[in-house]
Each structure stands twice: as structure tokens, then as C-alpha cells.
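the two lines:
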Amino acid sequence: MADAVLFEFLHTEMVAELWAQDPDPDPGPGGQKMSLSVLEGMGFRVGQAMAERLPRETLAFREELDVLKFLCKDLWVAVFQKQMDSLRTNHQGTYVLQDNSFPLLIRMSSGLQYLEEAPKFLAFTCGILRGALSTLGIKSLVTASVAALPACEYFLEGGLLPFLSVVGAGELPFPFSRGPRH
Amino acid sequence: MAVCVAVIAKENYPLYIRSVPMENELKFHYMVHTSLDVVDEKVSAMGKALVDQRELYLGLLYPTEDYKVYGYVTNSKVKFVMVVDSSNTALRDNEIRSMFRKLHNSYTDVMCNPFYNPGDRIQSRAFDSMVTSMMIQVC
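prediction for all of em together
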């Protein structure tokens, strides 16, 4: 497997490039959301492919919690070489995944410096989570928040919520299958 | 050796279907379509039964007088259906499992191809040649 740092460099360049191409310097909600959506869309496709390739030898997932455990352990280890630090749920479809030392943020600072810049670096990862969930049959909305670098939290809201928030916009409506979700 | 191989998406439409004797293609399409019901039945039965482990390989779905139909489901609810000639009794379970494993590997490769949009028909030549290697040779 290639060195983890290659992905970190690529990711940093992706964010920098998308931000540099933003034509209007006035940071109204419009311009920023486009770049975030593009990043999230890229992550989505990657997540779809990863969820196809990774669980190959494991047996079929029996319920949502199995899928979430797969995300926190196998997927996170494959992408970031470490497991997710904590997983909480309210048993009604909302999950909170917490990572206390997120590899893409750990090089920036540890504390409150650069807090405004941090969300850009989480958009791609939100996409990966959403893509993996969608391949495994769970429609969700993934948002992220940073309280203090390098810890970050990902909020997964399952169910048929309309995609209206900043991160997560830009998905085409997908035909729903008839019958209960397996 | 398979006579017909089909890859069905989560929403039950075919992503890839190919059968060897070209003239009876419609008959195989129909067989694959009817086997989807059996697949759904097996998957929901596995969900209810308190089995410790769930397997991806579903086994023999149903036999007809000429053919046997086998099924396999991935974690992303994509189904592989394979129709095999009944007269070829030398085919054992292990061989069918290994054929499905090859199919799954090739499907994963197709999925990871950035030029492939999930949900489109599979047009990859590599996938085609892998399936050809699994079908019986008809001159």
C-alpha cells in the first residue's frame, strides 16, 4: 500500500485548487458551497467504490449497527490507518462519529488556530462516508463539525431527509426501491 | 461452465446479462427475472433466522429440467445470477463458489473504475472477457 502521506498531500492540493478557482472573492454563501459540494461529490464516488471493495470477505451485514461498525473500523483504517475513536447513537437513526486526532487536521494545529479553515478539509471525508453508506443501502446526510483541532465529529442522519445543508448538496434524486430496506 | 450470467442492481434492473446460445436469449432473461423472487425470499429468510453468520453465496435457487440457477448477493445488494446446464453434472459447489468469487472481484474492479457511473450498464471489456472465460464454448 502506498504511503499515507501521499493521500494527505493530494487532499491538501485538492482543497487548495478548488478554493483558488473560486471566481468571486466575496465569501457569500454561494461560492463556498460550490467548492464544498464538489469536494463532497468526489468523496461520494470514492466512498461508493470503497464500500464495494472493502467488505468483500466479511459476511453480509445484518443491521445498521454492523454497517456503522464497518465504517468506524475497516473503512477508517483503510483510509486513515486508524480507527474512529468513538461512535454514539440516539437509536433513532442519528449517529455521531468522533475522531480525536483526525489525520488531515493534525498537521494544522492543535487548538483553536485555523478553526475557520478546518471545515473545507472535512468535506471530502463527509463524502466518503455518505458514499459508503449509500452503497450499503443507507441513505443519509453527513455533516461535520470541528470544536478544536484536530478533533472532529461527523453527524450521520439516516432516513429520507431532504438534502439541504451545505455539505451534502448536489446529489441527483435517486429512484427508491420498492419494499423494505434490507 | 455457465450458460448465462447476469448482474442485477439493487433496484432489480439488469446491469449486465449475457447468455451463450444467442437464439434463446429471451428465455434466459425470463429465467433470471423469475429467480429474483427466490433471491429476495432467501435474503429475507436469512435476515429472520437467528443464524450467526450470513453468507453471500445463496446456492442453488431452483432447478428446471434443463438448467440449474445459482445466486449470490453482495453487501451492496447487487445480485449475481448464474444459469448452468443440468447435463454438466461434474460442476461442484466449490467451482460455482469460485466462479462467483471471480465475478465479485471483477464487479468490484468495474465499480472502482472512475469512468463508470454506478447504475449504468456494465460495458467494461475486462469484465466481458472474464465472463467469456466462464461460459461454455459454443462454436
